[in-house]
Amino acid sequence: MRNHDSEPVLSVQNLQVSFTTDDGVVRAVDGVSFDVYAGETVCIVGESGSGKSVMAGSILRLNNSSTATTTGKILLGGVDVLSADESVVRGLRGSEVAMIFQDPMSALNPYYTVGDQIAEAYLVHHPEVSKKDARQVVLQMMIKVGIPSPEKRIDEYPHQFSGGMRQRIVIAIALINSPRLLIADEPTTALDVTVQAQILDLMMDLQKEFGMTILLITHDLGVVAEVAQDVIVMYAGRIVEQSDVEAIFHAPTHPYAWGLLGSVSSYGASKRGDLFTISGSPPSLISLPEGCAFHPRCVHSLGSGSRCQSEKPVLRPVGNNGSRSACHLADEVLVSIGTGTGAR
Amino acid sequence: MLLFIIRRLFFAIVLLIAVSVFTYFLFALLPTDPAALSCGIHCKPETIAANRIRLGYDKSIFEQYWLFLKGIFVGRDYGIGTAAFTCPAPSLGYSFNQHACVTSLIGETFPVTAYLSIGAFILWMMIGIGVGAIAALNKGKWQDRLATAFASVGVSLPTFYFGLLALFSIVIWFQILPFPSYESPLDNFPAFITAMILPWLVLAIISAASYTRLTRNGMLEAMNEDFVRLGVAKGLRLRVILRRYVMRQALIPIVTIAGLDFAGLLGGAIITESVFSLPGMGRMSIRAVVDSDLPVLVGTTMIAAVFIVLANVIVDIAYGFLDPRVRVS
Ligand SMILES: Nc1ncnc2c1ncn2[C@@H]1O[C@H](COP(=O)(O)OP(=O)(O)OP(=O)(O)O)[C@@H](O)[C@H]1O
Ligand SMILES: [Mg+2]
To answer: Where does the chain cross the membrane (chain B) (predicted)?
Structure first.
């Protein structure tokens, strides 16, 4: 179990994000709460469409304000991002909290040199620094993220870089202001397998060097096992389980996590590279099932007429590993199935 | 890059020669006899024959074309003896209807067209991009709907109809402006402005419509780009993001189309000039069609072609500067 005496770096409290679309209201994030503490790496896993990116985006208030409705609280160093002035949030973006996106091919502005773009990220929070000095800072950062011959490459455009090199540039942009929190949304998914490992190693090295806290969204269980202290499992916009990395691999406490981690054969799960796929498909976020959103796919569901079909389960402590689970099954059942079949 | 420019210019010249051949031969094949037209209805056959020799129409069409081409570079002499006269280089021929060298006719009318085009162009870019940007920034709100309505009405308005409507309402009914009567800005600047303001506005509003749509859609598309999201995540101000990220991308197709549209106008804003009786190249071309004034038609067509071909080259080169991805390859 983790020991947290200090204030969390990030505290998300009952976050709800919904989008108004032509088809109806999409409840992308539906009451999510968690804390992230200094120096930790927290991984968020879950199927495609479970609301991971929307949740991550709302931490810096990046979701389109004209279609998205966001409620709840997001505390970053005592500031509630959701109710703060735009100028306050702008001051946090890129300096206190930085973000890395999934696709390095489209994340960089094609019309400016990479040097300009890294420098821009630095200068916006260091307006007193001259362009010439900023260039030196940029060169140092390019060396740190492992770009060969940076003096030459600093004046090149994004399209002249490979995917892996571009993601290094994106990381350089993210880290140039030594942020306290780094949010990485599937930073390696779009890259070649060999490059994935390099980028991840780079991030972990830099985490040590900068003493950063990392919130990492990933589909790769190997990565979770390697870097995470804490793991959050999302399903249909809600957290279904939050556990220590040890606990989640050895004794997960939610039926969805059992399926996702491939630990329970009854789901007929098949490995597809990273996360396991669970039979059935995720629910439509416009019309979620009553009760637990997972019950139509859950082999452990208590059946028709039960609470599974009428009542949304809330996240509660289960077992003595510090795990939290949102499931109507009894604690003992969750612990015994989880431990009985957990280890991979 | 330099090589690219040289290559483009070379092709432009080849293209212009092709256009000149095409125009010249096309008009020469028309079933009119320029020599007969040059002296009216009650013309004696001897005069027609004499005129034909005087104007060079007795020669073969290839020889005529050659003389035309040569005239552009060295000027051209017409007639013999005391009746002889010269159109100095660059000569585009001689109009027997108007008894003047085509080059000097164009020299008189082109400035009018240029003033009209430049003024309208500046206005329409400001209106088009401005309204489009307001629409994009207020997507779905009333500003957006208003702009979209403006765009769809503007594109479908025929210039002729809209021009007449403006003329009638503003000049005749409300009498806000006097009837436009063109004066050179060098002679009488206030009169010039009063005459031009209506045609400028009419042309600008009609052309701005499609730019409104282009700007709005381009900006909305750009705003969805990942790199714009990263720009926001960097902590940049909205103003900086709009300029360096959104507009930078949205403007590229606009520059391309604007260049071609502007060049097209320079070749003669035929309808606008006719409606507002501006003595520009467009109106002269229409007159030339009515009068079968072939040399003038060939001349104005050539000038229009030069502008369009040049605009293509400039737009291509500008594209290379605007989009680094094009520049390198
Ligand atoms: N701007 C938007 N308007 C409407 N719906 C949206 C918008 N953005 C996201 N959504 C919806 O919200 C849901 C959650 O999307 P999100 O991108 O957070 O999923 P994710 O968990 O990140 O998935 P992935 O693993 O594929 O990245 C999806 O159903 C998506 O369609
Ligand atoms: Mg995502």
So the answer is: 9-30, 114-137, 149-177, 189-211, 251-276, 296-322
